[in-house]
Amino acid sequence: MIAPKSMILSLLFSFALLACGGGDESSKSSESAQEENEVGLGDYASALKEMEKAAEEMEKNMEEGVTVEPVDFRKLKELLPQTAVGIERTSTEGEKTGTMGFKMSNVEAGYETEDYSKSVEVTIMDMGSMGAGMSVLAAGWIMADIDRETENEYEKTTKIQGHKAFEKFDYNDKRGELSLLVAKRFIVEIKGKGVEMDELKEVVDEIDLDALEAMKDEGKSKE
């Protein structure tokens, strides 16, 4: 039995609420809570529209019997840079997981100086059959246009090498996050501590995004 779009959309929306509502609310400062409440209605409308598109794509794939086996995480590992911000790679790990008939794979690499003053984490995720739908759940920024800034930090959606991206940086702690959506299937995420945003952007240049995009149809099959 094919799940109707309404059911898929409901599932996506439920997971999105959980993803956005995770964490201890009491630990949030009143300032950050106020900033979250300042998200415009246009952002929510855009988010719902993107979620509906994702549900339609998933429904279409189900109706056509299209499945997508995630790229072997060992292959994704080959795209992880040997160094990041001048730091040698200190750890790597990868796995493939599945639930409710959907599978995904991801790899992660860590880079850290001996004195722990700088560290970087690079993650590549393949959403497999969930494609854009799972991407929406994994990264809420995909659904909206964001541009916020205070004297201490900023966050915004942007484009990097033609891919939708999200960057966030804390000036005081020198903590940054840079994420990209590639081919509506892969998410590349780079997090750093004790670094500048420009350094994180240089890490992106060390990842062969063209090779990753070339894998967009890998594992696709029709029953």
TrEMBL record:
Residues making up the signal peptide according to the UniProt record: 1-19
Keywords per UniProt: Coiled coil, Signal
Coiled coil region boundaries: 41-68
Name by which UniProt lists this protein: Transposase
Lineage: Bacteria, Pseudomonadati, Bacteroidota, Cytophagia, Cytophagales
